[in-house]
Amino acid sequence: MSDIQSKIGGGVNKLQDSIKSGKQKLQNAQEVSQHQRIVQEASEKRSMEIHKIGEIVYKRNRLEEGTDPELNNSTAKIKELDVIMYQAQQKIEEFQQQEVEGRLCPECHASVSEADKFCGSCGTEIPLPAPADEQTKECHSCEQDIAATAAFCTCCGTKQL
User: Fold this and answer.
1) Residue extents of the structural domains in the chain
2) Separation CA 62–CA 50 (nearest Å)
3) CA distance 70 to 77
4) For 123-139, how does the pLDDT look when each residue is reduced to its tens digit (9 = 90+)?
5) Burial of 161 (0-12, 13-18, 19+ CB in 10 A)
6) pLDDT tens, 110-126?
7) What's this model's pTM, rounded to 2 decimal places?
8) Cβ-based neighbours of 135, under 8 Å, separated by 6 or more
């Protein structure tokens, strides 16, 4: 009788793990979708600003005028949108990486989330992943953290000094 109860309990635990895993995947998919929407909206706004810059530069070059404050304003807006798109893309990559890697309990091999400190199936303490030792520096143009050895910013493409 206890063998049947044990099998039923094991089946229930597996079912709970599957539900938890499914919820996590759905949540990740929703987050990715939200960040993809942010990228799309920022990209559309960026395209509009690039078009404005083209019009301004065309007029300035045609009339041989000096520096135009509108040009500086549009350039600043494009820079802000580039940062927004870069940050959203980084979040998308983080969620997709979590999907690929997936964390498992070292004891019972049940799936656990990044936030879990203990396994929900067996109670084993989950070791935290080791932080990356990569040194970073701040881009002098967009102020995003980039690899210390990078020759160009991964966000705005500016050559680093």
Assistant:
1) 17-116, 130-161
2) 18
3) 11
4) 888 777 655 567 889 88
5) exposed
6) 777 777 788 888 888 87
7) 0.51
8) 147, 148
